[in-house]
Structures are given as C-alpha cells and as structure tokens.
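User: My advisor asked me to double-check a structure prediction for Imidazolonepropionase before group meeting. I don't want to rely on an old file, so could you generate it fresh from this sequence?
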Amino acid sequence: MSGKPLLIQKAAQLVTLKGSSTAPLRGKAMEDLHIIEDGSVWVEDGIIRSVGTDAQVREQVGSRLEEAEVVDAAGRLVTPGLVDPHTHLVFAGSRENEFEMRLQGATYMEIMEAGGGIHATTSATRQADEEQLYQESRRRLDQFLRHGVTTVEAKSGYGLSLEHELKQLKVAQKLNRDHPVNVVSTFMGAHAIPAAYKERPDEFVEQVIREMIPEVARRKLAEFNDVFCERGVFTPDQSRRILEAGKEYGLAPKIHADEIEPYGGAELAAQVGAVSADHLLKASDEGIRAMAEAGVVAVLLPGTAFFLMAEMADGRKMVDAGVPVALSTDCNPGSSPTISLPLIMNLGCLKMGMTPAEVLTATTINAAHAIRRGHEIGSLEAGKKADLVVFDVPNYMGLQYHYGSNHTRTVIKDGKVVYERD
Ligand SMILES: [Zn+2]
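Assistant: Sure, here is a fresh prediction for Imidazolonepropionase from the sequence you gave:
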C-alpha cells in the first residue's frame, strides 16, 4: 500500500487505550483510556507510526509533514475505530410485523414457536440469492461505518442448511473484500433447529458436526463457531459437541449463553475455552466466576434486552468480577434491529451501570479481543492499523451524554478517510 501519509492533528482528547494489545482490559483497568490532550497521530501505509501530543508528533515527523494529508480534530474527540463483535449482518427480509405482536404481550420464544422469529428470517434468507443478500447487507454495513464502526463480526445462521449457510458466509467474505469495514466471519449453523428437524434435533446436530463444519473450514469461510445454547434450542451437551467439533477444524468457539434462563452457558464457555460468551442476561454467579478465571470475554448486548423489554445483563457485576466485558449491537432482524453502536454504549451506561470510560473500552479494545483482533486494532499505538474516528464532541463523556445523535464526523480506515459527514 502506498499513498500520502496522514496526520490527524490536535484532538481535544485522543483516546489511545495504549498497552492493551495482548489481553483485554478488566476491572479497574477498563477505565484506563490513556487520553492525550492536544493529541495527534501520524499514519503511513495504513499503519499508525506515531502517537503523542501534537508537538511530539510534529517533532518526530519533521519535514515529512509537508507531504501529508491533514485531518484537523481540534476541539474534537478521536478514538480507535469502533468494533462490533457480535452481529447477524447477513440476512434477507424484515420482521416489523412481529413488533406489534410483542407489544401486545407475545414473547420472543412464543413468536418463534409460531413459525416467526428466526424461522421467518431463515425462509427469507433461503429464498434470496447471493446478490440480493449482498445488497441488503451492504446497506447495513454502510450504516455501521457512518456510526464510527470500522470492524464487525458477522454470523451465519439463517441458512440452517449447508447450501444456505455457505451462501451467507460467502456474502460476508465478499463484503470484507469490497467494503471499507472489515467483516470477521463466524459460522453459526447451530443458531436454531430448522422446522423440519423439530422432532429429531440430534440429527440436525450431526449434520452441523459432520457436514457443515468440515466444509466451512475447508473453504476457509469462518474463523469462529457459535451456538445458541438455550432451552428449546441447543442443550449444553449438544452445544459442547458442536463447539468441540469446530475446534478440531480450527474454528474458535463462541457461544450465545444464558439469555433467557440460567442454563450453564457461561460455565460451558469457560470449559471449552471460548473466546467469548455473549448475552449472559441470566448467567449464574458461578458461571461469571468461571469466565473471569478462564479469561472469556463477555459480549453484552443491551440493545437486545432493550428491544425485547427484558432485564439487562449485569454489566457492572461482571466488570467488578474481573470479566473482560465488550459491548455489541447484536444487529439482527428480530431482537435487535439496530446498527447504532453509539446507542448501545449509551444503554451500557444507563441500563448496565457501566461508566463512559468502561463502555468505550468495551467497544474498542475489548471488542477487538472478543474477535481475536486485539493485536492489530482497538487501540491507537504505533504498529497498529490506522482505524480511527473523529467525533463531534469535545470529550469521551459527550459521546454517551448527548444520546440518540450520531456524533461521527470522520472515519479513517487503514489510513484512508472513508467517511466524512458533509
Ligand atoms: Zn446473536
């Protein structure tokens, strides 16, 4: 890569999160944002070369400044590009009709059992061809970018057959190639038991293990393997088998755990060495302790609880227990139809008892570690990829305080300005 070097200069607050590349931050350290006032960043070939006060960076760079493109961040906040570590980005169709049903009292599980929910999206996704899926998902990815997100994880799991799971994953791979936002793929064939297997779920589990996982791995279409461990979906025992099978093929485990009731999901995550356990609204104290000990990242999804009018996961308790916490949109067509990671940050503060500093850590470096990218993104340090956001607020607290607005002004991905608000 070549092109002009880039100077992002004079940020009122430059949030660096320095020193967090090897492991996610926990406990008190989640508030160590390592802020530089009047901070600047020097970028060459898409990589951060120098970070410091404006005076320090200018001195280091010297006469090369003359060739640089300059982004002026005076009076503004600059952070690492936001990272969303849990989305169901690739799907077709929409489910507004279920919103009314829910508001009249139907539960998410009741709607699913009546053929709605995941099943409705599965039919729409199976019917869509690759091009339609690509176009619909690309529009969502554009929206993520406009909200300051430079990397998203994306799960399959609306195909629920080899052919259609591969189709979803191929779309995610193509988006990763074409779009400025990086897309990290997770195979989630075990997202639901397809209607046709309702009476013989073990047969479907076998299909996931024997057909889907080997083929996904052979085609290098995913890095992670995720399973929805919940009563009425996959049992802890089935989940364990699916996650262990993935590990044999090099797919690192993730798990949708303890969303609706305590079901041993957090404990299982610790036992199989999952990279993350996600949701955790009902995780047991035992499970939380086990996750802290094993270093499993808790990916919390307050937008889902908000939209389903459910009680939130206890983010405060998990941070205090020493679990590394990340936050995510859970962007999906049913339980969290949003792309706004800034709104999620706000919910993290108001509904989960986390501080503005903790939620910023949870959507940058800890989110990067939740998808094994902590070594290359999530903080602003020499040697890392130059993914940054300039926000139109003077300090990091303003991001959460002025809620419901999009404060994103400029997004820089791999050292290039890829979005600028008019
Ligand atoms: Zn999910």
